[in-house]
Fold:
Amino acid sequence: MTNGRGCIMKTFKKASALFLAALMLAAQSACQSASKTENAPAGTAAAATQGDQAAQATQEASLKPYQLNCYFLAPQVKDLPMVQEKLSELLTDRINATIKLNYFWFDSYTDKQKLVIASGEAVDTMFVQGFDFNNYVPQKAFLPLDSLIAEYGKNITANINPLYLLSATYKGEIFAIPTQKDMFGVGGVLVNKALADKYGFDFSGVKVPADFEPMLKTIKENEPGIIPLLSTQGDHTVYFTNNLLAMVSWGISHLKTDPEAKVKLSYEFPESIELTRLAEDWYKKGYVNNDVATLQDGMPQKKAQKAFMWAEQLKPGKAEEMSAQLGYELIQVYAHNDMQYYTSSMDLTASMLAINRTSKDPERAMMFIDLLFHDKEVKNLLDWGIEGVHYKKVNENQIDYADGVTAETSGYTGLGQWAMGGSQLIDYLWVNEAPDKWEKMQEFNDSCIPTSLIGFAYSQDNVKSEAAAVSAIVSTQMAPLASGIVNYDEYWPTVRKQLEDAGVNKVLEDAQRQVDEFIASQK
Structure:
């Protein structure tokens, strides 16, 4: 068996090699530009800078006006037209472009994305996650980005951890730009602090998800108007499982701690079976909302303080971040403590911007993505709205709601900044957040271990029909298990038979073969 630390070093070496190659391409491009200014006094940094600025000014002057058409995972917000207009002003100054912002939230984004790609609509940038990335890239929905990054993405390569780009590759080419953020997902919960304080809850003893039960029981018995654990289609089970499993394909995963990455159906690992049984127990006891299997958006209940806790992917400062958006104080608690955390390709590709093959100006699209990695004015406008209207600055890097504006009245709030692309490390912090949040985030990222499949993307080419059939079953039949509305021992055999009839064993065999070949190539 391959030594875990050995796998880590090989993964970092490969990531560094990819990063170096991107930098070399960028340097080559820079050298070509520099050759045009070779008459500048040798050895003077000022002359080199002036040459770079002149080249950039020449490039910007040669750009024809263009409107970017961009799709983001974001809620419908009242002031979107106002923000779009202001962002267009900034982009006109930077890259002579205006922008059309299309926002769709969790309840509709996946369906909208599918329709837009199928229609052939001219789209420049599009939010995409690892699950959909693996489906759409083989369909040639997105463009390969290596040459575009080298030419127009110097601020991307200068600011992003190379593991991100490695995780967004398919057959050796980069097809999306991940958001520079928390590098791994720690499943846990956000908790209404006022209610936790009211009952004197002590979360220090929480080691596994089952340890939340005494708190849920207390809320159920004493707070009739409050949902002890709010869940949308069983997302609490999904978040708790993410600490343990890394998905390879729809419904197929491996243990993050397994350097050989032996794949199985996700719901056949003992760890996930235990969590589905916990979900059923909590549902029967009334700890989870009755509409857990169908609820798609829990934000109204959260804003109205009708939920005691809900599951989230946590990171340093997540509670403070959400407190500012919801208008009341939250605390965060990891669901699995005293364990080593791992980062997988799915963690690193949870938020990416791709450039669609239908883009009429891929170069301009890459320029826009590049701005999100270094231009604080552009990035924070997209994240928080307009200064003086939606927020005000309290110091250079911290903000609060604008005078007369609250979380309830703001026309541009509730967005997930992690889904807006670029580098979160240049985002403004809210006044209630720790000023050293991004330093803590770096420490958090440094603590994780890459799984042995970083850089691996499963190709369904050999089992297209079987994989499509399996995906259809997984997307419709797994939610009842995660939600806890069915009994695992009674429900799973029926679903297992459906998966077998659809050809899942052939998919499992094909996936394991590709995984084994990838791991062998890293040794």
Summary: The chain has a mean pLDDT of 88.
